[in-house]
Amino acid sequence: MSKPPRTGENSQVGKVRSADRGVSSPQLMRRANRQALLQHALGAEAFTAADAMAATGLTRATVLGVCAELEQAGWLEEAPAERDGAAPRGRPARRFSLRARAGILLAVDAGEHTLAARAADLRGRELAAERLVLEDAPLVGDDLEAGAAAAERRLEALRALLDRVSARAGARGPGGARRRRGRTARRARRRGRRRCWR
Question: Which residues, 6+ apart, have CB-to-CB distance to 8 below 8 Å?
Fold first, then answer.
């Protein structure tokens, strides 16, 4: 006789992130719906509620509600109606599209002798890039203090590089307000090699 599966860490039920524990089911469902809509928006140039319903399996009311939330938050914007040459009949369906500049992605290539950073919008279009040749010697040898000091200098150089590239890319949040340097610097320290503004 087979035993029922346990709800431990190795089961599907147990595979819940610690950050999600204590969050109510409606909140998790709302987050999942937003993620599904944003995922669809990333892959579509523009879409209607019917398109999103077919792609996500969500109801029309849910799609329209989530789209309204994302539009208000600055992630989506209304796209122009399609023109197929035929005379329009009735009111055309609203079309939405992802605001490519709602966030900026930063990628870093940290090599032995160089640092490189690129900034792109949410569609992957490059906005800024810079490459820096390091003047310090490579991080080798047995001198731990010298190695730690060299590593700290590289971190400072990386932070300065990310600040320059993000400034050239026009780092702004979905609402259009420029982020303060202190906040972006803290995010850089927490996330290490990649940042995304929300």
Answer: 14
CA distance 164 to 171: 10
**Sequence letter at residue 64:** L
Write out pLDDT tens, residues 66-99: 999 999 999 999 998 876 655 556 678 899 999 9
Contacts of 179 (CB under 8 A, 6+ apart): 171, 172, 173, 197
Cβ atoms within 10 Å of 129's Cβ, excluding its own: 14
What pTM does this model have?
A: 0.61
The torsion defined by the Cα of 134, 135, 141 and 145, in degrees rounded to 10, comes to: -100
The H or E element that residue 1 is part of is none
Query: Does the pLDDT of residue 13 top 70, yes or no?
Result: no
Alpha carbon distance 151, 128 (integer Å) = 25
